[in-house]
Structures are given as C-alpha cells and as structure tokens.
Amino acid sequence: MSQQPPVRSTGSPPARPDASMSLLTNVMEHSLDDGYAEATARRQAEGGGLPRTLRAKLGLAAGLVIAAVIVTVGAAQAQISAPVLAKEREELIDRVDAQTEAVDELERNVEALRSEVEEQQRKALKTQGGDQSDLVALLAGATEVAGPGVKLVVDDAEESDEGGGGPRESSGFSDTGRVRDRDLQRVVNGLWESGADAVAINGQRLTALSAIRAAGDAILVDNRPLVPPYTVLAVGDGKKLSTAFQDSADGHYLDALRENFGIRSSISDEETVRLPAAPSLIVRTAEPKTADAARSGRPETADTGKGTS
C-alpha cells in the first residue's frame, strides 16, 4: 500500500507573537500623531519656522514697545494739559482773592457808614435834648459811661447739665440749674428800680428798647448771644445801689435761685465801672398835636432815625 504524502496547508502565515498587543505596537511604531506630523511636514516645506523661545522673546519685546508708546503718549498729553490746568487754577485763585477783597471793602464801608450814622444820632440827641442833652444821651445809651457802681455776676449751677424736676422745669425750663432769660430780666429790672443809671450785660449796653430773650439754650441781648457767666455792670451809687437791690424782691428772687437750684451769684460795689455805648440806636422825636389832630384824638409823631446793627 502506498504511503500518502503529507498534506501541507497553503493558508495565511502563522500569527505574530505580539499580535494580541496591536494597540501598544501601533503606539510604538507611530509615536507622533498624524496631524502633528502633517503640520511639521508642511512647515518644513514652507521653509521652517522660528523656535518657540525666539517667538516668546519677540512677543515680549513687542509688548514692551507698545507699553512704552502708551506711557510716552500719556506723559506728552499730561505735559500739554498741565499748563492749562495751572492757568485755570491761578485764575480761580485770583477770582477768589478779588471777591474776598471786595467783601472786605464792603464790610469796611458798612462799618464807616454805621459809625457815621451813630455819630449823627448822637449829635441829634445833643441838639434835641437841650439842657438835658447829656442825660438824654446817657439814657439812650448813645455815649460811653464810667463811674461808681456795682458788679453782679450770675452763673449756672456747677452740675447744671443733669437737670431734674421742680417748678422751673415744669414752667418750661429744660434744666433747673441753668440761668434763663427771665432770670436776667428780673435782675436788670431790679437794678433799674434800685437806682441804676446805666446797665450792661457782658459788655452789651442796655437801653429802654433793649430785649433779653432766649433762643434754645442761649440768652440773647438785642439779638446777640451771651455765654455764662453773665457779668452785669450798673452805674450808680455803689453801696446804696447794692443794698437796695439785695433788699428788693428781685434780689430775694436771685437768693431763691441760689438756695433752691444752685445758681451761683455774687454782687460787689465798685469804685469805677465802664460801660460802652449801645451798638444800636433808635432816635425818635414827637411833635405837638395840631388842632385837627387834637379834635380827631390822634397824635402826630415823626420818626427821624432808624436803628443800626
């Protein structure tokens, strides 16, 4: 029996030992992505490119140049506008100085005119006063006065800010230990009744038309605010005036304020006290009634002056 030849397979060649690691093999054989390889080939075909470090240096240099240009342009504009701003500032300062000088000049004119008006009013008092011109000027507060008198100092209580109950608070006083306008009114009226010829409070001369009022916590004399302590000067017979005031109802009223509310006060007779002239004057004259005015019952009066302030 004849032997059969061995059968040989004519199929595909045997598989590679690393056939099961095709992905890893592909990564090893093609380490550069096809897109990067294509881009590199294209740049090489175009003549190559600049290194990355060189491009970065060029970009930095370009940025510095742009920044330098911007700073230079800004500096140039500032130098151009600086003289304009300086000129405007100088013009504004000159205008302010000019207006300040104008206001000062107007104030000087007002003071000069006020002095002239007061002088004319004093002359009118002396002319119209006749034999009693000095007495009229004294009572009107038109002239300074000096002579013997008394010095009365009235001050708030030491702890006047604490307040408290009592008749003063219920009568409209916000604080029992504070000197009020009605207190000074009674003091001044008591001095007049005791024989004072002239009175002043903290340098403010009082006349028959003066007003002592309150504005909040402040006391006003002829619309001028005063601060404690309140120094009241009165011209007259010092000892007699002091005794008469302390024995009067207003003197007892001041003692009651000291005893009940702690308001401090002291009085002393002085050899010489000096009172200034009143800061404002009002000069009025009266004319006798005519026959027609007498029948109608209406008096005729003329106002020859206006108050100054």
Provide a compact summary of the structure.
The chain is of the alpha+beta class and 309 residues long.
Helix-strand sequence: HHHHEHHEEEEEEHHEEHE
Alpha-carbon Rg, integer: 52 Å
How many strands, which pairing sense, and closed or not: the largest β-sheet? 5 strands, antiparallel
> What global shape is seen?
elongated
| Strand coverage percent | 15-25%
Distance between the termini: 163 Å
Secondary structure class reads alpha+beta
* Low-confidence region ranges: 162-174, 299-309
Biggest β-sheet: strands ordered side by side in the sheet: 3-2-7-1-8
Number of strands: 10
Describe the protein in words:
There is one protein chain. The protein has helices spanning 22-29, 34-45, 52-129, 133-140, 167-170, 181-193, 238-247, 249-261, 291-296, and strands at residues 145-155, 198-201, 204-205, 212-215, 218-221, 224-226, 230-235, 264-275, 285-286, 301-302. It has 309 residues and is α+β, with helices and mostly antiparallel strands. A hairpin with a 2-residue loop joins strand 2 and strand 3 (204-205). The chain is elongated, with a radius of gyration of 52 Å.
